[in-house]
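task queued by scheduler; priority normal; single chain, no ligands, no partner chains; default sampling; output format set to structure tokens
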Amino acid sequence: MRAAGHLAPAPEETFTTPAAPASDNRRQAGAAGLRERCMARVAVIEDDVPTSDQLRGWIEAARPGIRVDQWFNHDDAAAAIGREPYDVVVLDIELGRERHAGVALINAINKRRGTPVLVVSGMPASIYRSIMKALDAWDYLQKSDFGETEFIETFLEVLRAAKGRSAAAPPATAGELSIDPLRQASPTWRGRRINLPLTAQRILDALYQRRGQVVSYEELYQVVKSGRNRDNVRKHVSTIRDAFREIDPAFDGIENVPMRGFRWAAP
């Protein structure tokens, strides 16, 4: 018999959460898979750990949620490139004792998927930029000459182009020039490759798309990522002319329109 004034505790109620229907589980798994497929994937190939970590940090800060894989030597990087569908590859040319390991990796990338490559190296840009462009690398940044802002701007351009390649318009092909900056294949003139940095390619494309018309300095500023002034635009146009004249000494297809801008006047 229970003592007066004391109540036996009521039995505890238990609740069981009903199991999610199998269709819901499949739907959730499918959504997770879709997110995984849509998430941009980047490989950073750099043998110096602090530099690799810095590049990864800049990328993740610029695009939260992005997946960044870090590789520190040629063999591991080559294996990863062979199995992973990266959207962008950021790499150094020299990896450990392999002075031109990055060149071999770019060749391997071009043979497989043609993934856009941004080269970040300590090698002098005056020598290696044209070499990397000849290999169809997207752009070349010399380590001693750029900071976080320029790196992020360049990287995001590469990423946008990579994501838009499937929907990109066909390259401009009329007359003797073929150019398509989004695909990052080097432009060709009369069937021969023209080695140009990215900004020069974009200026060339802007002129060519409106061939016969004057493209103002203000309009050309829109495709120049830094140094948006007339002197800088003139330097880029001079680079374009010099590149054409390396393969066609008689080239005179870009007209200077005083006080206004430039015009593509070639066929």
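post-processing summary
- Residues 1-18, 25-37, 166-174 have pLDDT under 50 and may be disordered.
- DSSP finds nine helices and twelve strands in the chain.
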